[in-house]
Amino acid sequence: MPTANVKSVDDQPPARRPGRPRGDEARVAILEAAYAILEEGGLAAFTIEGVAARAGAAKTTIYRWWPSRESLAVAAFLSVALPRISFSSTGSAANAIRSQMLRLVTVYSGKTGRVVRDLVAAGNSDPVAAAAFVESYVRQRRQAVREVLQRGIDAGEFRADIDFEAAIDALYGPVFYRLLVGHGTLDKTWTKDVADIVLAGLKPQAPEIKNGDQSRTGTKGTKARPDRVSRGS
Amino acid sequence: MPTANVKSVDDQPPARRPGRPRGDEARVAILEAAYAILEEGGLAAFTIEGVAARAGAAKTTIYRWWPSRESLAVAAFLSVALPRISFSSTGSAANAIRSQMLRLVTVYSGKTGRVVRDLVAAGNSDPVAAAAFVESYVRQRRQAVREVLQRGIDAGEFRADIDFEAAIDALYGPVFYRLLVGHGTLDKTWTKDVADIVLAGLKPQAPEIKNGDQSRTGTKGTKARPDRVSRGS
Amino acid sequence: MPTANVKSVDDQPPARRPGRPRGDEARVAILEAAYAILEEGGLAAFTIEGVAARAGAAKTTIYRWWPSRESLAVAAFLSVALPRISFSSTGSAANAIRSQMLRLVTVYSGKTGRVVRDLVAAGNSDPVAAAAFVESYVRQRRQAVREVLQRGIDAGEFRADIDFEAAIDALYGPVFYRLLVGHGTLDKTWTKDVADIVLAGLKPQAPEIKNGDQSRTGTKGTKARPDRVSRGS
Amino acid sequence: MPTANVKSVDDQPPARRPGRPRGDEARVAILEAAYAILEEGGLAAFTIEGVAARAGAAKTTIYRWWPSRESLAVAAFLSVALPRISFSSTGSAANAIRSQMLRLVTVYSGKTGRVVRDLVAAGNSDPVAAAAFVESYVRQRRQAVREVLQRGIDAGEFRADIDFEAAIDALYGPVFYRLLVGHGTLDKTWTKDVADIVLAGLKPQAPEIKNGDQSRTGTKGTKARPDRVSRGS
DNA sequence: GTTTAACCGAGACGGTACGTCCTGTCTTGTA
DNA sequence: TACAAGACAGGACGTACCGTCTCGGTTAAAC
Question: Pfam family example for this protein (chains A, B, C, D) (predicted)?
Fold first, then answer.
C-alpha cells in the first residue's frame, strides 16, 4: 500500500495555520531535560516544574504540548529510546531470541531498566500515557519477537500452533516480572534458564503419551504439525 | 546452666515497655481505612491525610507506625490479603498449577489486581516497602508453587534439573507482565496457552538429539536434586 | 540629544517585570482578613492558615509576600492604622502633648490597644517584623511628638537642653508600660498625672539649688531662652 | 512576728494525704530546666515537651502543677529571679532612684531583659500568668520604689502631692518601653536623661508664675495623702 | 507592510498534601 | 497519689508542586 499517497491526502501538506509556528528548540530542550531528570532521579524527582526549570522553559509550554507528567515522561523516554531494537537475523530463531533476551536483560539492568520501571509505574496513574508507552514501545518490540517466532515456526524449530501473544508473554514476561517486582536479579544464568524452559515449551513435541516414554520420533520436523495440535490432552 | 533461669530472663518477648501500650483500635482502623481507599481510588487517592481522616486517626499516629505512604499501603494490603493461597493438592502437579494460575488470573482481573499493580508501582519509590511486599506476599506465593513443582518432579511430571526460580518466573512472570504493563487482558484462554507452553517446557524431554551441544543435564546441581530425580524414565 | 528621549528611556521605575503582575485583590483580601482576625482573636488566633482561609487565598500566596506570621500581622496593622496621627497645632505645646496623650490612651484602651500589645509581643519572636513596626509606626509617631517638643522649646515652654529621645520615652513610656505589662489601667486621671510629672520635668527650671548651681544655661538648644531660665523663683 | 507559728498552724500539721507525696526533685528539675530554656532560646524555644525532656520529667507532671506554658515560664523566672532587689538606703532619694534605675537597666540589657520581655509577651496570651508576673515581680519592685519616693517626700526632695503610681510609671515606664518595643537601647546616658527629666518633674516647684493658669496645686487630694506626708517628718 | 494568531518565558494564584512539631489528654506500670 | 513513659487526636507549621491564569514579547503566515 502506498503510504506516501495516503500521507499526501491525509496530512495538510501546506496546511499552514496562522500564528507563530511551534519552535523546535523548546520541545527538544524539554524532552532532553525530562529524560535527564528521569534517568537521574526517577519518577520521584520528575516534576513538571523541575523539567521546566532545567529546560529553561515555562510550565505553560509543557502543558501546551503534553497533557500530564506521565505523558511527558513517556514522550521523553520514547524520544531517546525508540531507535533501537535488534535481532540477529542469522542462526536459529531460538538462538536469536536467546541472545536478544540477554541483550535486553543487560540493558534493563542499567539505567534504562530503572526508567522503564518508572514508566510502567507512571502508566498506572495515567492510562493514556500507559497506552502510548505500550503502543510505541512495547508493541513494537513484541512485533520484532513475533517475526522471529514466525521464522522459527517456518524453520520447524517451533510448534506451528502456538499462540504468538502467549509465547511472547511467556518469553518476556519473566523479565518484566523481575524488573518490576524486584524479587530477583536479572542475571544471565537466570535469563538462560528461563529461555531454555520456554523455548523448550515451544518446540514441536512428541504427543503427550504421559506414561513415561517420550520416544521422540522425528523430532525435527521442518513444519509444524497441525495434527499434533490436539492440545487439550 | 539452669535452662529455666535463662528462659525466665530471656523469654519476655511482650516485655511490657513503659508507657501507654499501643492501642489496637487505631491500628485496625487505619489499616482498614487504608485498604478501602486503596481499593476505591488506587494509589492516586491514597494519601496519609485521607487515610487519617477516614480512620478518625491523627496523621502522627500513622507516621508513628509506618514510615511512608508506601509502607502503609503494603501493610494494609497484607493485613487483608495475606490469608489466602490455595493449591489443589490432588491431581497432577501440572493441573494444580494450571488451575491455580486460572484462579490467580481471576483474582487479578478484579480489584485485587488493581491494588497489586499499585503496590508494585509504589514499591518503585520505596524500596523498603517493596521488600516487604516481596517478602510477605510474593515470596510466600512462590514458595507454594515451588512445593507443587517439587511434587511434579517427584512424580516424574517435570524435569529434575529445572531451576525453581526460573520456572516460577516463567510461569507467573507473564501474568504480572500483563497485569503491570497492561498490553493485554488476563483472560482464561491466554492463561491456558501460557501455562501450556511453560509446562511443556518443564516436562522431561528426550535428550537433545539436535546438536547435543545443549546437554546441560545435571550441571545445575544446586537447584535440581539429581538424587531425588530417580529419573521418571 | 533630546531630553524627552532620555526621559522616555530612563523613566521606567515601575519597569514591568516579566510574568503575571501581582494582583491587588489577594493582597487586600489577605491584609483585611489578617487585621480582622488580629482584632477579633488576638495573636493566639492569628494563624497563616486562618488568614488564608478567611481571605480565600492560598497559604503560598501569603508566604510569597510576607516572610512570617509576625510580618503579616505588622503589615495588616499598618495597612489599617497608619493613616492617623494628629496633634492640635494650636495652643501650648504642653497642652498639645497632654491632649494627644489622652487621645492615645483612649485609643489604646480599645481594640487597638490589644492589637498593639500583640504586635509588640509578636515582634519579640521576629526581629524583622519588630523593626518594621518600630520604623513605620513607632518612629513616625515619635517624630510628631518631637516636632511638638521643638515647638515648645521655641516657645520657651520647655528647657532647651532636653534630650528629645529621652523626653519622648519619658512621656510615652508609661503608656506603653501599662499597656504591655498590664499592672494598671489607662485611665484619664492617671494619664494626666503622668503628663503633669513629665511635662513639669521638661519645664525650664530654677538652677539646682542643692549643690550649688548647675547652670546648664543654653547649652544644647537651638533656641534656648536663657532669660527665662534666670530663676523665676 | 513569728511566721513559723503561723505556718505551723496554717499548713496541714500532720495532714498526710494518702498516696505518694509530691517529690521536690521533679519540681526543682522542671523549674531549672524551664528557666534554662527560657534564657537560652527565649519563648520560641520554650515548650512543655522541651522542658519535660530536659528535666527528665513527664509532660503530665508539668501539667499537674502548672496550668499553662506561660504559668510555667513565670514560675521558672520567679524561682530564679525573685530574691533580688536593692535600693541604697543612704543618700538622697533621687540618687537612690537614679542608681537603682541604672542597675535595672544594666540587668535588663543582659539575659534577664530578654527573659522579662518574653514573659511580658507570654502574659499577653495568658492573663493568669500575666497577673502572677505582675503580682509577684512587678508589684514588689514598685513597692520598693514607692518607699523610696515616700522617703524623698518626707525629706522634701519631692512634691508631696504626687500620685505614686503615676510617678513610678513615669520613672520606669520608659525603661520597659525601650525594653519591650526595642526602638532604642538601654544605655546609661539615656537612663540618666530620663531620670533627670522625671525626677525634675517630681521636685517641689515654685508656683507657676507664668500665667497662673496651671495652678493645680493640691487639687489632686485623692491620690496624694497630705496627711500622711506629714508623717516622716 | 500591517495585521493577527499562536508561541513562549515568566510568574502570580488557589489549592492539596506533605512530614514535622507541639499541644493537652489518656493509659499504663512502678514507687 | 506521684511520676515517667509514651500513645493518641488534633492543629498549625512551612514547603513542594499542581494546574490555571494573566502578562509582555516574539514570530511568521495572511491579509
Answer: TetR_C_11
